[in-house]
Design brief:
Elements (H helix, E strand, L loop, with lengths): L7 E7 L6 H9 L7 E7 L6 H9 L5 E5 L6 H11 L4 E4 L5 E2 L4 H11 L3 E9 L5 E4 L6 E3 L2 H4 L10 E4 L17 H12 L3 E12 L5 H4 L2 H22 L3 H25 L4 H8 L10 H12 L1 H12 L1 H24 L4
Parallel strand pairs: 1-2, 1-4, 2-3, 6-10
Antiparallel strand pairs: 4-9, 5-10, 6-7, 6-9, 8-10
């Protein structure tokens, strides 16, 4: 074993997570591992005490490296700069408000070596502030394959549920943009297109914390729709650079579109005053060389009809998602009605 070179580099983008950062780092550094690993924390312009927490932690843990952005450049750029600084044979991403399940690094690394794979993907679980857990078991059985179509259902998002050979992360389209959201779709699709052999595991090895203060949880549908211009540009770039087959492209676009429909439905119910902004933020779809005219027409129809937008959400996500949206809308409406009726104004 080459002691001068780590076996695994773990990239941790950090932005205003002072409440959760030590938990994340402890979950990594307390992992028993027979090889060597490094953690590259990229402080993305935090305005809280996150950077100082990193520096304090580094005093007791030499395997922690810190990159300081000074200003916020967004998660995809933070991850990319971390990957550029990485020296490990394999790379993992861990978000700074999440954590690793115990004793997983050695298990993952040995399986990568034994199967000689470029990527290993695995399940995760969600935990909220109350400690309630939900297992997201997208992978139901172990699979080793070189067939990208078979592996693609596990590669639409969640960069944090992958261990990847470092060379796959070089010269990526993903690193060219600072995505406010949905960047995982580009990262995961791109490393899959670059990979040879892939291993998928049914074990839940990562804990995603449902942080109510995260960018994902606080982003509005308007911001989300505006960001999708970057995502669609990146998908077009992926198609041009890697020339995937038509089925692969269709699957990526289906995933891209379903979140557009969800955002439109949320706009209808919770941001009615932004109707014109919705149209402006969606106009880029009309110039796409990838989206079919029928699909674009369906999106326009949903922009103009709340009921149809909810039907699309039901079709693509299932009734449970639609029920959640409508229930939230009813609760908000009743709360506003109560406040306007019973709470006196000064």
């Amino acid at each position: 074993m080459n002691k001068g070179k780590p076996n695994i580099s773990i990239i941790v983008p950090v932005y205003n997570v002072e409440k959760y950062l030590v938990r994340c780092l402890d979950s990594i550094f307390k992992q028993p591992f027979l090889g060597t690993f490094e953690v590259i924390a990229v402080d993305d312009g935090s305005t809280d005490n996150s950077l100082q927490i990193l520096k304090n932690y580094q005093e007791k843990e030499a395997r922690l490296k810190i990159i300081e952005h000074g200003v916020n450049k967004r998660q995809s750029i933070a991850r990319t700069n971390g990957m550029k600084a990485a020296a490990g044979d394999y790379i993992m991403h861990v978000d700074s408000d999440d954590w690793l399940m115990p004793d997983i690094l050695e298990n993952l690394y040995q399986k990568c070596l034994k199967a000689n794979v470029d990527i290993v993907a695995f399940n995760y679980l969600k935990e909220n502030e109350k400690g309630e857990r939900t297992y997201v078991n997208g992978i139901t059985k172990e699979l080793i394959t070189t067939d990208k179509q078979k592996a693609q259902p596990f590669f639409y998002g969640a960069s944090v549920t992958k261990m990847v050979k470092r060379e796959l992360t070089e010269n990526m389209i993903y690193g060219e943009y600072g995505y406010p959201s949905t960047g995982d779709l580009i990262y995961c699709s791109e490393i899959l297109l670059k990979a040879g052999k892939i291993l998928v595991l049914p074990e839940s090895l990562y804990v995603y914390f449902e942080n109510p203060e995260s960018i994902t949880m606080t982003s509005t549908p308007i911001k989300y729709l505006a960001n999708q211009r970057l995502i669609l540009n990146s998908i077009e770039h992926l198609v041009s650079k890697y020339n995937p087959n038509a089925e692969f492209v269709k699957n990526v676009l289906n995933y891209f579109e379903k979140w557009i429909f969800l955002s439109i439905a949320n706009n209808h119910l919770f941001f009615k005053d932004d109707f014109m902004k919705r149209k402006e933020n969606i106009s880029f779809l009309f110039n796409s060389q990838l989206l079919s005219q029928n699909n674009v027409n369906r999106i326009v129809l949903c922009l103009n009809n709340r009921f149809i937008s909810l039907l699309e959400v039901t079709s693509r996500f299932g009734f449970r998602m639609t029920y959640r949206i409508i229930s939230s809308y009813i609760r908000k409406t009743l709360t506003n009605l109560f406040q306007n009726t019973f709470i006196p104004k000064n």
